[in-house]
Amino acid sequence: MATEIQPTGQAPVEKTSEERVVAGAQQFWSKNSKLIGIALTVVVLLVGGYFAYNSLYKGPQELKAAEAIWKAEEYFRNDSVKLALNGDGINQGFLKVISKYGGTKTGNRAKFYAGACYLQLEDFNNAIKYLKDFSSDEIVAEMRANGLLGDAYSALGKKEEAVPYYKKAGTLLPEDQVNAPEYLFRAAMLLQDLGKNQEAIELLRQVKNDYPRSVMPEAQGGQDVDKYLGKLGDTK
């Protein structure tokens, strides 16, 4: 145990616990001060680099992407799908925005638009490519993307692949009285085609019970769903 040297004739005095802690800390610092300094420098550089990247590069890129996409979005709203996708020779289309600003939020949004454009142009493989590359924290956007993926796979005759996308689209926003039951209904019709009648019945019952006032192209509300349930042998 560490002691202090006392004048001749006096007994050594033990260090207190606080003194031992301080001494240990001083020893640790003297041995490792260089490594600690390097580690702190690295942390400062990483934090500084992160903020520099966001303020000096990412921020301006987002602004440029937002400026580049506005005309393509206008073309999309006006159903000028090819111009929205490819541009008009002066203004950039969604594909160019993706190419130049794919890592930005706007570039990500352009992937959704590109997928929707390709779907309207009946280029279903490219529609799937861009829609699968799109991601969003916004539930409405995620629901719509999954619904469009279901449409694309269904159009290709890939019913097995389409069903989970329709089901996901139908459950992401259950309070949506229009889109949620429509996507569930589409999934049920494909399951019926696949011979998976029990799964189809379960989805149709969900539409009937949860969305009795929904209006869909083929089945309007809970009452009309009954005829589809009847065809599947469910008359409850």
Count of alpha and pi helical runs? 10
When the domains are counted, the total is: 2
Mean of pLDDT = 82
Number of strands: 2
Describe the global form: flat
Question: What's the order of the H and E elements?
Answer: EEHHHHHHHHHH
The largest β sheet comes out as: 2 strands, antiparallel
Low-confidence stretches: 1-5, 50-54
How much β-strand is present in the residues?
Answer: under 5%
Q: In which order are the strands of the major sheet placed?
A: 1-2
SS-derived structural category: mainly alpha
Task: Please bin the fraction of helical residues.
Answer: over 70%
Radius of gyration: 32 Å
Q: Could you give the distance between the termini?
A: 85 Å
How would you characterize the overall build of this protein?
The chain has 236 residues and is mostly helical. The protein has two domains: 101 residues, no CATH class; 101 residues, Alpha Horseshoe (Serine Threonine Protein Phosphatase 5, Tetratricopeptide repeat). 73% of the residues lie in helices and 2% in strands. It has a two-stranded antiparallel ribbon with strand order 1-2. Helix 1 runs parallel beside helix 4. The longest helix is centred in the first third of the chain and has 61 residues. The chain is flat and about 85 Å long. The N terminus is likely disordered.
What distinguishing features does this structure have?
single chain; 236 residues; mainly alpha; Serine Threonine Protein Phosphatase 5, Tetratricopeptide repeat; 2 domains; two-stranded antiparallel ribbon; 10 helices; 2 strands
